[in-house]
Write a structure and sequence with these properties.
The chain is an alpha/beta fold. Helices cover 28% and strands 26% of the residues. The protein has 11 helices and 18 strands. It is globular and about 60 Å long. 46% of the residues are buried.
């Protein structure tokens, strides 16, 4: 089969690869229909490089089951499915407590074992979830990032009527806007320096859009909330600057939840840091998209809301391309010469 393999920083290659085979009784082999570029993929491509040189990359995907091991009974060949890419040990202290997102050896496919930027991928049976016909393969490829957002919001005490600020309107941020609305937020403030992203955020349900290039996010939030701030502030930009600034957006006794990864030192100015102390903020980290029982209610909730149309993931997709175009697309993303939202690859299509 053909696949995208990451060899080093900015060294992604479209190459031949061995097709996966059933080796354990609970294995499931899936023909990948759609697989997306994650924000963390961009950082790893540009800054970090692979965990394993030449590994088949990618972890957000949907597809069709082609073969199952003898112990798998909940899905069969021909079923439409989504794959949860997270792999946990089940033996460490966190796993025994049911806190699977904190597994000591947690990783996802595409890191230490082959991922979804390929024509076929293999997962344990419990990682494979059936998807109804109402959900397209394109939408299903975004179930994993959506579950990341839901996992983060479940960490908070978000209730109907609360106000929410979302800092950073990439895929995670735009999904956070939608989920805040689904959770019942009364006012949602979307923050980004890209007006195109803010326009999409408005379509996704944001009540107010804020561009910090015009005036600081803090000043604008204070003006719009009569100097109070918001109940929940979501950091989804994943930059060192916004990871500090987000503390200023929450009201007294408010909550700040981090969904982005800055991949750099976060230097917090006194003004922002003192908000944590003086406002007695609750600061929450959020990692991955799984909980117990695996893969967690994040996944069921996302599938249910996609099926009923409450969650519109396809609106985030701007580019649909072949795997062969992958290396050029990653470079285009880094060049930032054009607006690129969510990118999906279709492995079964060739140039």
């Amino acid at each position: 089969m053909k696949a995208l393999k990451l060899y080093g920083k900015r060294d992604l290659r479209f190459e031949d690869a061995s097709e996966p085979r059933i080796e354990n009784e609970n294995d499931v082999i899936i023909k990948v229909k759609a697989t997306g570029i994650c924000g963390s993929d961009i950082s790893r491509y540009a800054k970090l490089g692979p965990y394993v040189q030449g590994m088949i990359w990618g972890h957000e995907f949907s597809g069709e089951v082609v073969e199952v091991g003898p112990s798998v009974s909940h899905v069969k060949a021909g079923d439409r499915v989504v794959g949860c890419p997270a792999l946990y040990c089940g033996k460490c202290e966190s796993c025994k407590k049911g806190i699977l997102s904190q597994c000591e050896s947690l990783h996802v496919i595409g890191a230490l074992q082959p991922g979804s930027f390929a024509e076929y991928v293999k997962l344990p049976g419990e990682n494979v979830l059936f998807i109804p016909d109402e959900i397209s393969y394109d939408s299903a490829a975004l179930i994993e990032p959506s579950s990341v957002v839901v996992h983060g919001l479940y960490r908070t005490s978000l209730q109907p009527g609360d106000s929410v600020a979302v800092m950073g309107c990439g895929t995670i941020g735009l999904l956070a806007v939608q989920w805040a609305k689904i959770f019942g937020a009364s006012e949602i403030f979307a923050i980004d320096i890209d007006d195109q992203k803010l326009n999409i955020a408005k379509e996704m349900g944001a009540d107010f859009t804020i561009n910090p290039l015009e005036k600081s996010a803090y000043d604008q939030i204070m003006e719009l909330t009569n100097g109070k701030g918001v109940d929940i502030a979501v950091e989804s930009a994943g930059s060192p600057v916004t990871s500090a600034q987000v503390f200023s957006l929450a009201k007294k006794r408010g909550q700040v939840v981090f969904m982005g990864i800055p991949y750099g030192d976060v230097l917090v100015e006194r003004f922002y840091f003192e908000k944590i102390v003086r406002n007695e903020l609750t600061v929450l980290g959020s990692w991955n998209a799984i909980s117990s029982p695996f893969p967690g209610k994040e996944w069921k909730t996302t599938i249910d809301c996609m099926r009923t149309g409450k969650l519109n993931a396809e609106a985030l997709i701007t580019h649909r391309i072949t795997l062969e175009e992958g290396p050029k697309m990653f470079e285009k993303i880094l060049e930032k010469k054009e607006f690129i939202g969510k990118v999906l690859f279709y492995p079964e299509i060739r140039l």
